[in-house]
Design brief:
By secondary structure, the chain is of the alpha+beta class. It has a single domain, classed as Outer membrane efflux proteins (OEP) (Up-down Bundle). The protein has ten helices and eight strands. The strands form three sheets. A four-stranded antiparallel β-sheet has the order 2-5-7-8, with no helix packed on it. Strands 1-6 form a two-stranded parallel sheet.
């Protein structure tokens, strides 16, 4: 008895662990997981961090440029060698010096500087560089903003993809529920027909038609299950989850979950200013203006001041004291790029044309975005109209199936009419599911493009 209790407890724990491992996520939970875990979005955030580092590098251009160097050498022979001829000296002063015990050689060799070292340090501070340093910093700051906007756009697109796949899975599972309802209906029809065949009222062929319809629906059920598994894997990848541990809590695919389009409307001219694409187009114009300013700065003089220090130590050879020398120098430089003016004026004109091109692209983007928003609005209103049509179709299909079922059980119509009614019922419910799921994705798309 104790072993049975342990077995049941173990089975209960395994069941609880399995249920906990495969978490069922709502749409909002899927969106939160995707924003937190998606690798592509993480790469976009890394681009922002890289742009921050580029901006930090651009800021360091304001600081002095400092360089230091050291050189040491040792030579196979002394670098300075000299042979002095003392013949004339010996002839003139030799006798006198000889009486004093001093002998003058005919020649004398001098050699020195066989090894040594030189150390130098230089610091240069730019005072004016044609505005290139400040412009470079502004370009780096602009790049940071561009990367941030690209993250916003990537997150927006990711949310749309998650929403699309989520509602596709919801639609598939609603279709699966419809198939189960139809299979239950066919089971009852098969039972009635079997009784009619046994009573000699119906033909055996009617049973075969029903069984063929059942097999068709079972095949559809299998296709739905395979599509469900595939879409769930894709959604799990977007959310950064393992497919075996991931599932969604399916929402009801009903018209009541769809707000009317009029409650979501926003003017295209107003909405276009909220679009990330519009902000990127504006940033592109700013970037081209800064590039034009950068090209102009390349044609202007540059002024810098600096200081340099040097220390050298030389081995002067035997009998001589080592040479040690240090010095500090201050300097100023003025550079005028005279020859650059020849080609620079053409580079400046090209930059000006690039800026005009960016402005044209921005204006064109504004018009295209307004059209895109209007198209999304039309899709939204059309989607809601499709729901209304599908609702009427379901009402008609349900009533048709009810009446046909009553007439078939009464024996006033044949199996073909019965199966046709079931087909119409299935199609009507599938169209409703498709219409609601499409409306949800179109609503998400419209909100993405206007908010």
């Amino acid at each position: 008895m104790r072993y049975l209790s342990i077995l049941f407890l173990s089975l209960g724990l395994l069941s609880a662990a399995s249920s906990q491992a495969q978490k069922r996520c709502s749409l909002q939970e899927c969106l939160d997981m995707a924003v937190a875990n998606n690798r592509s979005l993480a790469n976009s955030r890394t681009d922002v961090a890289m742009a921050n580092e580029d901006a930090a590098v651009a800021f360091t251009k304001y600081f002095p440029s400092v360089s230091a160097g050291a050189t040491g050498f040792i030579a196979a022979k002394d670098l300075v060698r000299s042979e002095m001829d003392l013949t004339d000296v010996a002839a003139a002063y030799g006798p006198a010096l000889g009486q004093m015990g001093i002998a003058i050689p005919e020649s004398y060799s001098i050699s020195m500087m066989k090894k040594g070292a030189v150390v130098d340090v230089m610091a240069t501070q730019p005072l004016y560089a044609g505005g290139q340093i400040r412009t470079g910093q502004r370009l780096a700051a602009l790049q940071k903003e561009v990367r941030r906007l690209q993250v916003d756009m990537a997150e927006r697109d990711l949310r749309q993809n998650v929403t699309d796949y989520y509602w596709q899975i919801c639609a598939l599972r609603a279709n699966a529920a419809t198939v189960d309802t139809v299979l239950a209906q066919l089971k009852g029809v098969h039972r009635y027909t079997s009784d009619y065949v046994n009573a000699g009222i119906a033909h055996r062929n009617d049973l075969l038609k029903i069984e063929l319809k059942q097999q068709e629906m079972e095949s559809d059920r299998l296709k739905i299950a395979n599509a469900d598994a595939l879409l769930r894997m894709v959604l799990a990848q977007l959310c950064g989850a393992k497919p075996e541990d991931f599932d969604i809590s399916t929402e009801d695919v009903h018209p009541e979950s769809c707000p009317k389009p009029q409650s979501l409307f926003i003017s295209p001219a107003e909405a276009v200013e909220n679009r990330v694409e519009m902000a990127l187009a504006e940033q592109n114009v700013r970037a081209e203006k800064l590039q034009e300013r950068m090209e102009r700065g390349k044609l202007l003089p540059t002024l810098a001041i600096g200081t340099a220090g040097m220390y050298q130590q030389m081995d002067m050879g035997d009998g001589m004291e080592d040479m040690k020398n240090g010095n500090l120098i201050g300097f100023a430089t003025l550079s005028i790029p005279i020859t650059d003016w020849w080609g620079g004026k053409h580079s400046l004109r090209k930059a000006r044309l690039q800026r005009e091109k960016a402005e044209n692209s921005r204006d064109d983007a504004r018009e295209q975005l307004e059209i895109d928003i209007l198209s999304a609005w039309n899709n939204l209103t059309e989607g809601y109209a499709q729901i209304e049509v599908a609702q009427r179709s379901i009402t008609s299909a349900d009533e048709n199936l009810r009446l046909t079922t009553d007439e078939y059980r009464a024996g006033t119509i044949g199996i073909t009419d019965m199966l046709d009614a079931i087909t119409l019922f299935t199609q009507a419910h599938n169209r409703m599911v498709e219409a609601v799921a499409n409306y949800q994705t179109r609503m998400s798309d419209y909100l993405k493009k206007t908010r």
